[in-house]
Structure formats: structure tokens, C-alpha cells
Specification:
Blueprint: H1 2-17, H2 29-32, H3 76-83, H4 105-116, H5 122-137, H6 139-188, H7 208-213, H8 222-229, H9 233-240, E1 245-246, E2 251-257, E3 263-269, H10 271-283, H11 303-307, E4 315-320, H12 324-327, H13 330-340, H14 344-354, E5 359-364, E6 367-372, H15 385-392, H16 394-406, E7 410-414, E8 417-422, H17 429-442, E9 453-456, E10 462-463, E11 466-467, E12 473-474, H18 476-492, H19 505-519, H20 521-532
Helix pairs in contact: 1-3, 3-4, 13-14, 16-17, 18-20, 19-20
């Protein structure tokens, strides 16, 4: 059909350009030599041949029964004249999917012009219009089917759009429900507290019988622990979350010098964490027994009770454990709480609340980060660290006490200071030291060889600063120092005696006097009277 349109445009434009272009004087030879008559009878030969061949079958023409004048060729001039007739004009363009009928004058002109130009012959043109007539018979059904097809396609599109909208609505609803579930879980549960420390948070199985037997609070989930502490779950998560690098920290840290050289880092928790640790100490740790050999940070025991069993010993061996608190890491503390009967979830949180990583402060521009540079372990300065260390070392105390008893020696421990003594034979010192190294290593500790001391009767024997040669007493150097301070303070004042740089010198003096009173009441009483006389 586009061809017909182009032909029409060419004919109409030829009217304007006919003056400039020469009009052919005759039709093309391919058109002039054609025979457009309709044969009625087949042609027969004029004379029979000697060997006659079968007669030729008549050829059926596509023009049979049609008005042959419709397909007679027109010249360009005739076509131009035909376009000026009233029937040439049409109020509409022919549809693209319809072969125009020959009943329209302009269609006849176009047909005859195409034949005249040799673009198509009459039989081909007749075939085209025959196909058009056959198509016209089914055009109504075609439109019905086409309409039904369009309707089906539109219905399918609408159904897909409806399904898509429904799926989007369901996805939005699921997202909303998921966000609500996450918000509720954050408010009521803890499932993640940082990389490397959250493995046991999904296990909420506690040994209720074991907890009840030890008179410990029965806790199975993070919500149980938060409720027992009297804090929201969100606060518990904030206090126990492990950050490899954080802008803030729950501890205030500083360093103090050691007597043996080097520095010791003290980390004191801020109030919120300190309150949580205080609850753990009072509600859990304080209810569990320590070994009889442990005297450090145990109610009713002190350096004096730890030194008394070694008074009058023939030989005294002092052993120091290396990096005592840093050796007790997060995994050991979590295992300790699981051993009490707590679920892995509760044990994990309790271990996170009572351990901390050593951190280095890194400043970049205006930003300050506290970066973890080691594993989490017991911090020196937390109220829970001494009690946890005593409970962790119960097995060590039991094994060392049994070994010492087997060779008739005495054993006590004050924090990381181990003391062994005997009153009879000193032949087994080498055996004792070998066994101490072996047992401490098996229990996850190390002996600091540089601080190991073997003291005999002829030397000053001391345990945690208390002399035990004949009776518990304070060493003479300390007593002389206190007497000198109190004597000079009468004339010069107490603060002028602060040559060792104590921030609270008066408190240090009164504390030392109280310590002397505990070990030797008579000496302490004299010092107390001198202090009160200032």
C-alpha cells in the first residue's frame, strides 16, 4: 500500500513538473507489445505433423470473467488527466492492511498506470485484487479476532500489572514486618555483639539445677540478664558490644610505674559499666567459693592470713606468675560462667562485661579512635577481675596445694604471688620448682623466672611484704621511714615530707599506719599516736 501512495505522489507531482520534463511519445516496448485480449478458444495447428504431439492444454487466465478494460495500460498523460477528474479525490487514505477495491476510480487509474509503466502486468494485478476480495470476505471476522486479541493482550497486561502491584505490596508488607521484628528483637533480645565474640548468643540453654545448687540467679537469655540487672536490653547491648575501633570507650585508662621497672596499665570502668560489674560481683561471683590457698581479694583474708602459714619456715620459695590478668582472656572467662551453669548466651555477655582489649589511641585530624591491639582479658581496675581470677585459678590452687602437701610443704597464693615453705627438709626445692612450672603451664599460666626467690632462715623471709622469719612483722625499712616522716612532720609539717610524689600523701600515711596495725598491733599503735599528735 505504501507503493500506491508513492505512486500517487509521483503522479500528482508530475503535473507540476510536466512542463520541465519531456513526456514519452509512446508507451514502453514491454507494454506496447503485450496482448491484453482474453483468449476464448485454444489455438490449433494449421496442418498435422507427421508425428503429431499431444495437443497443448489451454492456459487459464487470471483475467477470465473480469473487466479487461480495468487493466488496460495508461500513459503518463492519461494518468495526469485522470487525476483531474472528480472521482480522483478521496476523503481518507486507504488502510495499510487493506488492498483497495477496483471500484474506486483513482484505484483504476493507479492500476492502469502501473501496467502502462511496466511495473506490473495485468495478470499479477488481477491476482492482487483477487486476494483483496478474498480478504474482504474475512475482514469482519478479522476485526473481531483482532479486537478480541487486543482485549486479551490488555487483560494479560492488566493481570501482570495487578500481580506486580500485589507483589510490591506484599514485599512492602514483608519489609515492614521484618523491620518491626528487628526493632522488637533489638528491644528484647541480643543476637550479635561483634565479630569473634557472638558465637554462643543463639544458645539459651542453662543448667538450672546447677545454678540453683550454687544459689545463683537463673538466667538463660539476654533479656533475663537485663531484667535482673535492672537495665534495658539496649543498654546491656551497648555495654557489652565489642568494637575493634571505637570513638568512645567504657574505661578510663592510665599507667603507673612498677617497682621492678616498666609500667602497669590501670583501666577503671565508667559508671554504667561499673554498676553492671558490681552487680555481677555481688550477685554471682561473691556466692562462689574460692580455694583455701587463695588469700587475695577474698573476704576475711588478707596478706597477713596468706603470710602466717609460712612463719618460722626453714626455706621459703616465692614464685610470681607472669601477666596474670592479661593471661585470663575472654574465652576463659566465658568458659568459667558456662561452668557455673549459665547458657552460652548469658556467659558470653557476662564475659564481655568483665573483659576488655588493650587499646591504643589514634588521632587523625579531629577524630580520635580507641583501637584494640590485643585480645580481650581481665582489666586491672575492674572490681570483678580479682574474683574472676581466683575462680579461674581454683584448679591451679587445688593441684599446687595437693603437690605441696605430698612433699610436706605449705602453699598460699595472693593474686599472682605464689608462696611455698617447709619447716623440715629443703631437699625437694628443685623438684618443687619443676612441678610448679609444669602445673602452671598446664593451667594456662607462666612463671616469671626473674622474680622467683628461694629464701632461707639466715635471710629476711617475706611473703607479700610481710616478714615471716619469727613472727609476722613489717620490714624495718618501712617502719623507719614512717617514724622519720612523723618525727619531721612535727616541725616541718606533714606535706613537706612528701618526697615520693603521692597525690594524697596524708591518706598514704594513714593507710600505711593501718597496715602496720594489722600486722603488728603494738608497732601500729605507737605510729598512730605519733600521727594524731601532729
Amino acid at each position: 500500500m505504501n507503493f500506491f501512495r508513492r505512486l500517487t505522489k509521483w503522479i500528482t507531482s508530475g503535473r507540476d513538473s510536466s512542463a520541465d520534463q519531456p513526456v514519452p511519445s509512446q508507451m514502453p516496448a514491454s507494454v506496447e507489445n503485450r496482448d491484453y485480449t482474453v483468449p476464448n478458444t485454444p489455438q490449433t495447428p494449421s496442418a498435422p505433423a507427421s508425428n503429431p504431439s499431444p495437443p497443448e492444454q489451454p492456459q487459464t487466465s487470471n483475467l477470465a470473467g473480469l473487466d479487461a478494460s480495468r487493466f488496460q495500460p495508461l500513459s503518463q498523460d492519461e494518468a495526469l488527466d485522470a487525476t483531474s477528474q472528480p472521482g480522483w479525490q478521496s476523503a481518507y487514505w486507504d488502510p495499510l492492511n487493506v488492498i483497495p477495491s477496483t471500484s474506486l476510480p483513482r484505484i483504476r487509474v493507479i492500476d492502469q498506470t502501473m501496467v502502462g509503466m511496466g511495473l506490473i502486468d495485468a495478470e499479477e494485478l488481477a491476482d492482487i485484487h483477487h486476494i483483496g476480495e478474498e480478504m474482504a470476505k474475512y475482514r469482519t471476522d478479522y476485526h473481531v479476532i483482532q479486537h478480541a486479541g487486543h482485549a486479551a493482550v490488555q487483560a494479560a497486561r492488566d493481570a501482570r500489572a495487578a500481580r506486580k502491584a500485589e507483589m510490591k505490596q506484599r514485599a512492602a508488607q514483608r519489609k515492614q514486618e521484618r523491620e518491626a521484628a528487628i526493632a522488637e528483637r533489638k528491644a528484647t533480645d541480643i543476637v550479635f555483639l561483634g565479630r569473634g565474640v557472638s558465637r554462643g548468643l543463639a544458645d539459651r540453654r542453662s543448667n538450672v539445677e546447677r545454678l540453683q545448687a550454687s544459689s545463683l540467679p537463673v538466667l538463660s537469655s539476654p533479656a533475663d540478664l537485663a531484667q535482673a540487672m535492672g537495665i534495658p536490653v539496649a543498654t546491656l547491648r551497648w555495654l557489652s558490644y565489642h568494637h575493634p575501633a571505637s570513638k568512645t570507650t567504657h574505661y578510663h585508662s592510665w599507667q603507673i610505674a612498677k617497682r621492678s621497672g616498666g609500667v602497669r596499665t590501670i583501666s577503671r570502668p565508667h559508671k554504667n559499666l561499673e554498676d553492671a560489674q558490681r552487680w555481677i560481683l555481688e550477685s554471682i561471683l561473691a556466692k562462689l567459693p574460692t580455694h583455701d590457698a587463695a588469700h587475695g581479694f577474698v573476704p576475711g583474708r588478707s596478706t597477713l592470713t596468706g603470710a602466717t602459714p609460712h612463719v618460722g619456715a626453714k626455706v621459703l620459695v616465692n614464685v610470681d606468675l607472669q601477666d596474670f590478668f592479661p593471661t585470663i582472656d575472654f574465652a576463659r572467662v566465658a568458659g568459667l560462667f558456662r561452668g557455673f551453669g549459665y547458657s552460652p548466651a548469658v556467659a558470653t555477655i557476662l564475659a564481655l562485661l568483665t573483659t576488655e582489649s588493650p587499646r591504643r589511641v589514634i588521632r587523625s585530624g579531629s577524630e580520635t579512635l580507641h583501637v584494640a591491639v590485643g585480645n580481650r582479658s581481665l582489666p586491672q581496675g575492674a572490681c570483678t577481675s580479682p574474683a574472676i581470677s581466683n575462680l579461674i585459678a581454683r584448679r591451679l590452687d587445688k593441684r599446687l596445694a595437693g603437690m605441696a602437701r605430698s612433699i610436706e610443704w605449705q602453699y598460699t597464693r595472693y593474686a599472682d604471688d605464689l608462696s611455698f615453705s617447709c619447716r623440715e627438709s629443703e631437699e625437694k626445692v628443685a623438684y618443687l620448682m619443676a612441678r610448679v612450672r609444669h602445673l602452671t603451664s598446664e593451667e594456662g599460666f607462666l612463671v616469671k623466672e626473674s622474680k622467683t626467690r628461694v629464701l632461707r632462715r639466715h635471710a629476711q623471709q617475706s611473703v607479700t611484704g610481710i616478714v615471716v622469719n619469727d613472727r609476722p612483722s613489717i620490714d624495718r625499712k618501712t617502719i623507719r621511714q614512717l617514724r622519720s616522716i612523723l618525727h619531721k612532720a612535727k616541725s616541718e609539717g606533714l606535706e613537706r615530707q612528701n618526697r615520693i610524689g603521692h597525690t594524697n600523701f596524708s591518706g598514704w600515711v594513714t593507710g600505711m599506719i593501718a597496715y602496720v596495725e594489722m600486722v603488728n598491733p603494738q608497732q601500729g599503735q605507737k605510729l598512730r599516736e605519733a600521727y594524731e599528735a601532729l
